[in-house]
UniProtKB/TrEMBL annotation:
The chain crosses the membrane at residues 6-27, 39-66, 72-92, 112-132, 152-171, 191-209. Keywords: Cell membrane, Membrane, Transmembrane, Transmembrane helix. The lineage of its organism: Bacteria, Bacillati, Actinomycetota, Actinomycetes, Propionibacteriales. It is found in: Cell membrane. It comes from the Bacteria. This is LysE family translocator. It is a multi-pass membrane protein. The keyword Manganese does not apply. InterPro entries: LeuE-type (IPR001123).
């Protein structure tokens, strides 16, 4: 198992990698901006629900299938990029009302949650994190049972750190959103949100195609 130094290094690297802006953070932030803190918090839990799936898949060794089949990984990554592009177009085509940011294309929380899970599951950054980063901190010469246990424990640590960071994005974005309540700011915000989704989808697609 890891020593204190390795553990601190793992925690620090996790904070940096998980906290860097990406599809997950942008989805949470935009939900808080457009629909308020509750939607942002629901989005944060949705994102980490997707992480639970990745943790279980990694611990069971099924991620090796993706590692052995780059084409399948590319297809999944492109599907994620397409979904982000869909969210961007949907946001740009939505119409805000005069009541401000909180009323911009509000979605039922169940739909917000399901979309958040999909955003994470189709996020190339998340897949690469669990595929390439997490296994580096396991005991390579240990038996399958110990490696599986270590992966689950490391995954739990990532889950806790990720949820804390995600909730920070949700609360921070909501605080910013509360400052903008005019019809004009709603229109600006809609274009900013839609444009952000589209920009991230382009980056995700280029990354998947190694361009």
């Amino acid at each position: 198992m890891m020593g204190i130094g390795q553990l601190l290094g793992f925690a620090g690297a996790t904070v940096v990698l998980v906290g860097m802006p990406g599809p997950n953070n942008i989805y949470i932030s935009l939900r808080s901006l457009t629909q308020g803190r509750r939607a942002g918090v629901v989005s944060a839990f949705a994102i980490e629900t997707g992480s639970v799936v990745y943790i279980l898949v990694t611990a069971l060794g099924l991620v090796a299938v993706l590692d052995a089949s780059p084409e399948l990984f590319t297809v999944i990554s492109l599907a994620g990029a397409a979904y982000l592009a869909y969210l961007g177009v949907k946001t740009l085509r939505s119409s805000g009302s005069s009541s401000g940011l909180g009323s911009l294309r509000a979605e039922p929380l169940g739909r917000v949650f399901r979309a958040g899970v999909l955003v994470n599951l189709l996020n190339p950054k998340a897949a690469l994190f669990f595929l390439a980063f997490l296994p580096q901190f396991t005991t390579r010469d240990a038996g399958p049972g110990q490696v599986r246990t270590e992966m689950l424990l490391l995954g739990l640590a990532v889950l806790v750190i990720g949820l804390a960071l995600d909730l920070g994005y949700a609360v921070g974005a909501d605080a910013i959103g509360r400052r903008f309540r005019s019809p004009r700011s709603t229109t600006i915000q809609r274009y900013l949100a839609g444009g952000s989704y589209l920009a991230v989808s382009v980056v995700a697609a280029l990354t998947a195609l190694n361009l």
